[in-house]
Amino acid sequence: MLSIVAMAVRGILLLAAAVVLGLSVTNAKHQVIGNPPAETSFGSFAGAFGVLVSLVGLAALFIDKIPAFLVMAADALAGIFFLAGGIAMTLALKSVGSCTNNEDKYQYFRFLNKLLNGGCVDIGNGKQSCGGGGLTNDALVGRCQRAQADYVFEYIGFIFSVAIIALGWVLHKKGGNGTRSYV
């Protein structure tokens, strides 16, 4: 019974990691000036790492040669990456306040946010041009909502990483074999 629960948790973790990867890559594609922000790039890495770890964990369910400690350590690392990415995205979006409020100050905050505006270039006299021109409020709202969804799924990935480690520990102890894969 626990292995079925562990397989379900592993599947949800795989899904969350795939969503993080997809959202982060989509956000990175909107960067038209310069490189994507570090938070977006790290989100892509965390999502890809989470997908890889989830696939290894699923394989470990069927292949006893994969050491339980290796899978557990990879799950812990994925959880740390998800948590770090979620915190970084949350802090980077803190100045935005609201993704959907159309008051001028919120539109201004969205326009200045490095995760949302597509990059800025200095044009002199302390002024910047952001987003490569033609950046609409609707585009910023969409980018903001994708960035929020990205960090939410990073937190979900962290929660399910902790859950799979706990389930794995229980299954590993229940099995009694030190080389047996845990989840």
UniProtKB/TrEMBL annotation:
The keyword Transmembrane applies. It is a multi-pass membrane protein. GO terms for cellular component: eisosome; plasma membrane. It comes from the Eukaryota. Residues 7-166 form the MARVEL domain. One of its GO terms (biological process) is eisosome assembly. Keywords: Membrane, Signal, Transmembrane, Transmembrane helix. It is found in: Membrane. This is MARVEL domain-containing protein. It comes from Apiospora kogelbergensis.
